[in-house]
Amino acid sequence: MENSRPLDELNASRNKRVIIELKNGKQYVGKLKAFDIHINIVLDETEEHVDGEVKRKIGTAFIRGDTIILISSQ
Asked: What is the DSSP secondary structure assignment for residue 16, as one 8-state letter?
């Protein structure tokens, strides 16, 4: 998609699995359910990953946008 905006790209990832990396080094993988203009994120089927391994399963998680450094689709 040429000339798309960041929120358009995020919207294209809705209901798909994404990887979220936080400032504190934690990584969460889950299905993107919702987000707002501040990039606050709601994930379903969320897993916390450490060194590529699943550390714990969280279920539904709300992640504050100001803690996120990276969002990637899987």
From this structure: S
Quick one: pLDDT at residue 2? 58
Q: Two tokens at 67?
A: 């803690």
Identify whether 1 is part of a domain. no
Using CA atoms, how far apart are residues 22 and 4, in angstroms rounded to an integer?
A: 24
Provide the domain count of the chain: 1
Q: What is the 3-state secondary structure (H, E, C) of 60-73?
A: EEEECHHHEEEEEE
pLDDT the model gives residue 33? 98
- Per the structure, the complete domain to which residue 67 belongs is given by 6-73
Distance CA 25, CA 71 (A): 13
**CATH number of the CATH domain containing 57:** 2.30.30.100
